[in-house]
Amino acid sequence: MPEKNLQPSSKPVAIWLLVGVGMIIIQVVLGGITRLTGSGLSITEWDVITGSLPPLNHQQWLAAFDKYRQTPQFNLLNFDFTLQDFKFIFFWEWFHRLWARLIGLVFAVPFIIFLLQRRFKPGMIRPMLILFLLGALQGVVGWIMVASGLTGDAVYVAPVRLALHFILALGLLSYTFWFALQLMTGKDKFIIDTGTRSIAVTGIFILVIQLFFGALMAGYKAATAAPTWPDINGHLIPSGLFSLPAGFMNLFQNKITIHFIHRSLAYILLLLVIGLSYRLFRSRYRSSVLKKTWPLPLLLILIQVVLGILSVLTSPQIVPGQWGVFEWLAQLHQLSALFLLLSLIWTFFLFRKKVN
What we know:
- This protein is mainly α and 356 residues long.
- Helix content is 66%, strand content 1%.
- Strands 1-2 form a two-stranded parallel ribbon.
C-alpha cells in the first residue's frame, strides 16, 4: 500500500484518482465481456500506437481476418467464422485495448498538469510512480496472456495467465482506491480497533485468493463441470479432486478441484463478513462515517453468493457465440466482486491499530 503519512491533499487530485478507479472497474468489466464472448485472441498483434484504430475499410478487415485465420483458435474452434462473426469478436478485444489506452491518457495527462502546478507533495511521488509501473505491468502481462493462445493447439488464453492478469488488475484498482482514500480522509475519521482491522484484512486476503480461483474457473470454463448446488455433482466433497497425475498442479488444472476451492472459499468469506458486519453494527463508533457504510460488505457478499449460485445453475444453458442468462449473471458476479473488494479495503483503511 502507499505510504501512510500522507495528508489529505487537493480535491482535484483525489477526484482524478477516483476517476481512475471508475475507469479500471469498467476495464475489468470489458475484460469479462471479452472473455465471455471468446474475443481475446481476435487481434494477433500488439501495436500500441497504430493498434488504437480498427480496420477502416474492407481490405483492412480482410487482412485482419486473414491473420486471425492463422491462429489455433480459428483452425480448431471457429473454423466456420464469417467476416461478420470476426468483426464482432474483434470489436470487444479492440475496445478492451482502447479503454486501456484511455486509462493511460487519463492518468498521464493530469499527472503532467498537476506536476507543473506543483500540486503533488513529496510523499506522493513514490505512490504515483508505483501506480504507473502497475499500469505498465498490467499491459505487458495482458499481451503475454494473449500470446499464450496464439501458438500450438491452444484455443483460449492460458487460464493461469488469465488469472494473473485479473489479479494484477485488482491490485491496480486497490492501490488507486487506497491512494485516493489517503487524500480524502482526515485522521479524525480513523477508528482505533485492531480486531476489526484484522478481520477486514483477512477478508481481503481470502477474497483475493477466491477471485484468483474464480479467474481459473473462467479460464477453464469450469462452471459446467459441476452445475449443481448446494452439492457438487451430488457430493459435498466431490471425488476426483486429485485425479490428475500432476499432484499439486490439480489446484490449478483440475476443473473440479478449482470449482471446489472457489465455492469453499466463498462460504468461508461469507461467514467472515457476517462476523465483521455484526462487529461493525455493534461498534460504539456508529455515529462516525461508519454509520453510512457498515452494511456494504454484508450486502455485497450476499449479492455475490447469490449471483455465483445462479451462474453455476445456469451454466448448462451456455450456447457458444451467444450472450445469454449465464453471461449476464457471470458478468454481474464479477462486478459485485470488485465492489466487495473495495468495501473491505474501505473498512480496513478506516480501522487502525493507532493513528500516526
